[in-house]
Structure formats: structure tokens, C-alpha cells
Amino acid sequence: MRIIHLSAECYPAAKAGGLADVVGSLPKYLNQLGHQCEVVIPKYDNQWIGSQNYKNIHEGSFKMAEEEVQFSVLKMKEDKLGFPFYVIDIPGRFDRPGIYIDPWSGRGYWDELERFVSFQIAALEWIKDEKKDPDIIHCHDHHTGLVPFMLSQCNRYRSMSGIPTVLTVHNAEYHGEHELDNYKLLPAFNIDNVGLLDWNGHLNSLAAGLKTAWKITTVSKNYMRELSENSNGLEMLFQQERQKSRGILNGIDTEVWDPASDALLEYNFSYKDRKKGKRKNKEYLCKEFGLNPDLPTISFIGRLVREKGADLLPDLFKQVMYSDQEVNFVLLGTGDPQLHQIFSAMAGDHVGYFDATLEYNEQLAHQIYAGSDFILMPSRVEPCGLNQMFAMRYGTVPIVRSVGGLKDTVQDISEDNGYGITFAEFNLEAATGAIERAVELYKDPKEFSKVLSTIMKLDFSWKRSAGEYIEMYEALTQK
User: Fold this and answer.
1) What per-residue confidence (pLDDT) applies to 446?
2) What are the two backbone dihedrals, phi and then psi, of residue 233, each rounded to the nearest 5 degrees?
3) What values do phi and psi take at 37, rounded to 5?
4) How many Cα atoms occupy the beta-carbon half-sphere of 68 within 13 Å?
5) Which of 47, 194, 242, 473 has the fewest CB atoms within 10 Å distance of its CB?
């Protein structure tokens, strides 16, 4: 089967979150199983995209309302990602450094809708002009949620309406919601069907995709269940579309995330020398941050936003540091400017016990996974979560709120064969209790060693999940 993945992100070309990791790895594993997966994203003006060699394979134009939009499709010459990789160049829309956020102002781009509508139309124009249709068009999140609508409703793409579409919801907190009158940006369609774009009186890109895609997937089974109860206003729609929906747990690229060969680590290690390897990486990490390597080291890596529970962290860290527990805390991330100020001040107030790096730093993230004892994920919402999988691959025990994919992937140490620390309620008391349990585990070398052995043997590779996608694709393409 030939499957085209349309996405706003793809690691390592453009990454803001877990969406990039999925789109950058799932197609590779599907190709290894004998299929032909390709990835298409916008051409951003960032360092990685700008440093690659491309072949211009298509040029075109289209009308978007009154605007004449020129575009070109570029294919990366070297196949070093494990799949054919394309970027769509739309001058004036994507030739900026940020994916969603202007790095200079810290705010979202004013023309978000025009940017992603133009990307989706350009992708369909290119596919339409190719000699052979793909077997599947796989869309990711609201940025490509209008593709299933346009294929099924727009007159211009009537010849392509038989191409099955899949929409994967990585994060239902974001809908791509705008004024309904913006439907005029799309190619002509029967205005009687404008209701397919409408949710609560607005054009809602995610809702449109949910209504018109042939199949809906989410990134974990538990998240699929949760969306019917909490999806930022789309609960009823997820309930209505339940029959065509399924949860498929994300995997991780175990070739990229391998402590034995990871070039970003100071010291490589494998399962066999896990204790020594962890210790050397921990000593290096603690030296970098001025921390005591004999203390349990708990880290947070991620966006400093409400959904990740980042607003709980200042009080949580302080409560533990002001108690009789001696713990190291390391934080890496960017997000809420107010949290940046708080963590910067805390780093000065708690030297030797807390430090924060308030930036995106892929190399440091890998080192933190390798050098920490625990990774903390107190999320309000966590569709799947990849950090806990990365951490366990590197021998770092997860402390997680049991929500979304965290519930699917982390089993509490109180259960038979358990290997993580979980808590249910989103509050200071529950999170503090989880950290206290983690410290107790750390103080029991025999039990801690047993957990380390367990988590490094767990398999979170894409091989397991890729088979579920293939099964779904094949069911959609049966004539």
C-alpha cells in the first residue's frame, strides 16, 4: 500500500511535541513491513530543513478566496529518514522559523488558518496531478483535518473522493477553531453541507475531520475512552463517531532512542551494564547542574503548559525541598513566561537541589533521560505520552498521573510486576505522595535494581503498533 502522511510536524525536520516523533517514526516502521509510506509537511524556514538537498518535483497554484497562491513540492534527495520526505514551499506563509509560534513574540501566527488551509490545498493539488492515487491519506491533528472534508465535499476533488482517509488525533485540546465565514477559503462545495465544518457556530477543523474521515484513531486506548468525556467541547462528537474510532498506542523509534548507541549521551550503556552506565551518566548530569549524585534525581522534560501539569511543579518542588526529604530536581522545557520567571528564581534560591534549563535542547533531554533516577509527568491531559517510554528505555523510572496513555503504559509498583509510580488525582497532595514513594523505592537498592531491570526490558517499539495500523489500512482498502 502507498500511504501519504500529511502533518504539521515530523522529527527531525520540525518538532514542537510528540506529533513530530510519531510522524517521524511510524512511517519508517510501516515501510520496513513492506509498505510505501511518504511524509509531507510545510517548508518552514528552520536550520534542519534549510540544510537538506531537495529536488523540485511539482509546481502549481490555486485560488484561496481572492488570493492566488503559488507553491512547489520539494523531495529530499537523500532517503535518510527511512521514508520519502517532502516539503511544500508556500512563500509568504511558511517561510518563517516557527511552526505555530513566532519565536520573537512568543505568540501564535496571526494567519494560522490561512497557513494550514493553503498547505492542505497544495497537498491535494499535487496528489491530484499525480498519475496514481495513494491507497490511503493519513492526516494528523487539526492542521490537516480539512483534507477529509475537501476530498469528500469539494467539487475540485470529486475524482479523489474514493481515497480512504484516516485522521489521527494526537491532542484534542486544539481544534483549529475560527469564524465560520472562513469556509470561503476552501474550494467550492455544496453550501448545504457547510454544517460538516460547523461546531458550535465556528469552523472547527478537527470536528470537520472527525465527521468526514473514513477512520479516526487516537494515540492510546485509554485516551480514546477519555475523549468522550473530556475533549474541550467535542465530547458529543467523539461519542457519535465512536463506531469508526479506535485507539492505537504510539511506539517509539528504538533505533533513535537506544542508550547503547545514542550519540547525544556522554556515556553509552546497555542493559548488561545498566547500573554502571546509569551511574556515570548521573554523575555527569549532576556535575553539570551542581547537584549531589548520591541523592535521588527527579526530572521534568516538556512544555511548561497547563495540560502537562507544569503549573503544579513550583509548589510541588518547594514542598519536597522544604521537607526532610533530600531530592534533586532538574527541569527542561519552555512555555508559560510566568513559569519561566518562577523557575529562574527557584534555581537561584535552591542551588544544589534544583536547576532549570528553559529552552528546547534535544541533546540535554537525552542526557537527562540517561542520568535521572525518575521522570515526573503530572499531566492533566496526556493522549499517549512518549517521555515515559523514552525514560524507561534509558532506565529511568516514571512517576506519572494515571491518565490517557500514561495509564496504558505505566503499571504501579504496588501491583504484580509493576514498574512505575502512579497517582490518580491532580493535586499537590497526590503528587507529593508519589514523590515520597519514589524516594522510598530509591532507598531500597534491591527493589530499585529490580525495577530498573524490568523497565529496560519493556518493548515500546513501533513493531507492535504498526501491525494494528496495517490491519486498519487493509480493511479500508478492501473493495
Assistant:
1) 96
2) 105, -5
3) -105, 135
4) 2
5) 47
Grid cell at residue 258: 537506544
Give me the domains of the chain, ranges plus CATH numbers: 2-253+463-477 (3.40.50.2000), 274-459 (3.40.50.2000)
Contact (CB, 8 A) for 145 and 139: yes
pLDDT tens column, 174-219: 999 999 999 999 999 999 999 999 999 999 999 999 999 999 999 9
Phi, psi of 452 (to 5 degrees): -60, -45
Distance between alpha carbon 199 and the CA centroid of its chain, in Å? 25
Q: How far apart are the first and last CA of the chain?
A: 14
DSSP string, 118-152: HHHHHHHHHHHHSSS--SEEEEESGGGTHHHHHHH
Rounded to whole angstroms, how far apart are CA atoms 11 and 81? Answer: 9
Asked if the peptide bond before residue 103 counts as cis, ω within 30 degrees of 0, the response is no
Instruction: Specify the pairing of strand 215-218 against strand 297-301.
Output: unpaired
**Cα 384-119-36 angle, rounded to 5 deg:** 65
**Among 406, 462, 460, which Cα is nearest to 434's?**
406
Residue 144 to residues 6, 104, 119, 213, 261, Cα–Cα distance (Å): 7, 26, 8, 11, 35
All cell numbers assigned to 305: 503548559
Residue 170 vs residues 40, 116, 204, 404: alpha-carbon distances, Å: 17, 17, 16, 11
% of the chain with per-residue pLDDT over 70: 100
Closest of 424, 422, 416 to residue 450, by C-alpha:
416
Q: Is the pLDDT at 421 greater than 70, yes or no?
A: yes
Measured CA angle at 58 (ends 54, 59), to 5 deg: 115
Do 129 and 58 meet the contact criterion of CB atoms below 8 Å apart?
Answer: yes
Closest CA relative to residue 180, chosen from 110, 107, 113, 94: 113
Question: Predicted confidence band at 479 (pLDDT cuts at 50, 70, 90)?
Answer: low
Residues 159-177 have pLDDT tens digits of 999 999 999 999 999 999 9
Q: Could you give the 3-state DSSP secondary structure of residue 420?
A: strand
> In 3D, which of 452, 462, 417 has the Cα closest to residue 257?
462
- CA-to-CA distance for 369 and 277, rounded, in angstroms? 12
